């Protein structure tokens, strides 16, 4: 079987930035499983895996426009320091989980802080970064009808965890 739309794919991956710093890796852990063709992984990696088979290995650089995109200046904003109840020492680089406009969880990074306000950046931390992936395809199977209707992979036997 080859990777194509609606296949459940398990991959081992090692992700580094342009300087070779490790961003994330599944080495020594469980492989990452995803439903191919529904946007569960970044577009550039999904395209690079299309048509591959079990045991195939790829090494690919993914440009920002096929990964987490370009920085959106509209996602940088100042918010009242009072929004950070219970946090006394707010420093640049700290990350917090916030609620996005449609209620989804979003990570924000502190850019600067004054006694009255905190400037945060809600862009993805990997925006504007070219990503290097080393990937090995571990398994490929057909998605279950339930996985297709839900749009994501379920655990062993096709059930939610």
Can I get a quick summary?
This protein is mainly beta. It has helices spanning 43-49, 145-150; strands at 7-16, 22-25, 32-35, 57-62, 76-80, 95-99, 105-113, 117-121, 131-142.
Name the descriptors.
161 residues; mainly beta; Chitinase A, domain 3; Thrombin, subunit H; 2 domains; 4-stranded antiparallel sheet; 2 helices; 8% helix
Structural summary, described in words:
- The protein has 161 residues and is mostly beta strands.
- The chain folds into 2 domains: 7-68 and 127-158, Chitinase A, domain 3 (Roll); 73-121, Thrombin, subunit H (Beta Barrel), CATH 2.40.10.330.
- Helices cover 8% and strands 37% of the residues.
- It is built from 2 helices and 9 strands, in the order E-E-E-H-E-E-E-E-E-E-H.
- Strands 1, 2, 3, 4 and 9 form a 5-stranded antiparallel beta sheet that branches. It has a 4-stranded antiparallel beta sheet with strand order 5-8-7-6, with no helix packed on it.
């Amino acid at each position: 079987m080859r990777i194509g739309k609606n296949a459940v794919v398990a991959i081992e991956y090692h992700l580094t930035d342009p300087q070779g710093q490790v961003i994330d890796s599944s080495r020594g852990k469980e492989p990452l499983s995803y439903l191919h063709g529904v946007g569960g992984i970044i577009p550039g990696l999904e395209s690079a895996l299309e048509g591959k088979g079990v045991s195939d290995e790829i090494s690919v650089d993914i440009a920002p426009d096929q990964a987490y995109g370009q920085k959106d200046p509209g996602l940088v904003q100042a918010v009242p320091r009072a929004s950070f109840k219970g946090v006394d020492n707010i420093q640049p680089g700290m990350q917090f989980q916030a609620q996005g406009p449609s209620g989804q969880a979003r990570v924000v990074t502190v850019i600067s802080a004054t006694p009255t306000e905190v400037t945060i950046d809600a862009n993805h931390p990997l925006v504007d970064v070219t990503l290097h992936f080393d990937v090995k395809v571990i398994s490929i199977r057909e998605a279950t009808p339930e996985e297709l209707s839900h749009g994501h992979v379920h655990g062993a036997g096709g059930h939610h965890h």
